[in-house]
Amino acid sequence: MIIGVPKEIKNNENRVALTPSGVKELKKHGHQVFVQMTAGDGSGFADEEYANVGAELLPTIEEVYSKAEMIVKVKEPIEAEYKLIKKDQLVFTYFHFASHEPLTRAMIDSKSVCLAYETVEKADRSLPLLVPMSEVAGRMSIQQGAKYLEKPLKGRGILLGGVPGVRPAKVMILGGGIVGTEAAKMAAGMGADVTILDLSLPRLRYLDDVMPANVKTLMSSEYNIREMITDHDLIIGAVLIPGAKAPKLITRDMLKDMRPGTVLVDVAVDQGGCFETTKPTTHQDPIYIIDDVVHYSVANMPGAVPYTSTLALTNATLPYAIQLANKGWEKACKESNELKLGLNIIKGDVVYKAVSDAFNLPYTPLEKYI
Per the database record, which ranges form the Alanine dehydrogenase/pyridine nucleotide transhydrogenase N-terminal domain (predicted)? Predict the structure, then answer.
């Protein structure tokens, strides 16, 4: 198969979809790999490293898209890329369709095959291609939250871990999945007073067993959230419904009950955000303030640490990319239910129910293709 790796062009996105190591593995399987020049620079991988393992370097993004049968990316295509995607071309990347109708309609119009990292799902309901970036984003949410609690950055002026004789910051984490767990580990390690809210009692029991003493668990409800927001300094949105829009757990009217300088970090922004006031921001302009509450909602948080993120992501995606390249998407998805669940749009048909529901689009059962 001919595989193309374009340079990511989303604002401040420095990750790359294949490392030189990944290219070498695909070459061993007999595949041809085109990499756009400088695609790996942001993650610390030079063109020479790709050339040395057999990648063919192309100067423009247009050439990569025109030659490739399968495009492997990190982030969803942005508007400048829509017209480059060809009929029947397989695009393997994060899409997050349910939060972005123009992208969804553009991919329908392209008649391409869209296989989304975020909905590849194992039998135990885990999301193997979302996990590594969730781990990075969960840890980063505390790092960023601690920074924006500083007074010069419009926060309350609180040190996350406090000091002897002064209480630490209170951190509220909505969601006890991968993001929430990693956020809690980081916040607890820095000495904060942490509470994780979730709807699953088994998950809360597990977290209660494994977390340190400064992490508490609480059943998630609107009542409990409204009670807690009045005295918490940092609130992390870490809720995920695979492939669907995130629920709005912090509403606009709740902001007036928060103290000035409270910081909200919405890691669910890719799926529409779990705060009603969330709007996507960039690393270049990461925050905005509503009712004296600081909002941080960068849509590609792991892009700020591209070396770590690229290695973590490609460790997870490469085995699936090899399956798709070796067998073609139809045979690979027939033989792997995990990959089958990653299919969102096929040749103009929406085959993932949560995406069709998000925009009232016609739904086509996967059985038409697989």
Answer: 4-137
